[in-house]
Write a structure and sequence with these properties.
By secondary structure, this protein is mainly beta. Helices cover 0% and strands 64% of the residues. Strands 1-2-3-4-5-6-7-8 form an 8-stranded antiparallel barrel.
Length: 132
């Protein structure tokens, strides 16, 4: 049986805008947050771009890669705004040419990682790969 985590979407086709939701669960509550991922550069197997969080109006820089057919990316820095903690790693559990689903993890002091939540993104705009 085919592993559902295998990448149906090729890295070179990631460029563009992806809109969706991040379902975050904290210590006392859960929330659904809108997120917009823009992939600006792809140099397989690596890619770069931004995540924009409309609420709390925060823009972060991301870098990611494809390994064993799975997309991984990490928020490295806050470029504008506040309310987002850099260091969250996103990992796909399923991809199609128009949809990316997965989970994300916070780095943790006492354990290697802690599950932060789940996400789903849908392609909304296609861009050609920018200069490398």
């Amino acid at each position: 049986m085919k592993d559902p985590r295998r990448l149906a979407l090729q890295p070179a086709n990631l460029c563009g805008e992806w809109n969706g939701w991040f379902h975050e669960c904290g210590d006392d509550s859960c929330a659904d947050l809108r997120v917009i991922m823009t992939v600006e550069q792809v140099d397989p197997p690596r890619f770069r771009g931004t995540l924009y969080w409309p609420d709390p109006r925060c823009l972060t820089r991301i870098e990611g890669f494809v390994w064993a057919g799975v997309l991984y990316w990490t928020e490295l820095a806050v470029l504008r705004g506040s309310g987002v903690r850099p260091g969250v790693t996103f990992e796909t559990s399923r991809t199609t040419p128009g949809e990316i689903r997965g989970q994300c993890y916070y780095p943790c002091r006492w354990t290697e990682v802690a599950v932060a939540g789940a996400f789903v993104l849908w392609r909304t705009a296609v861009k050609k790969n920018g200069p490398n």
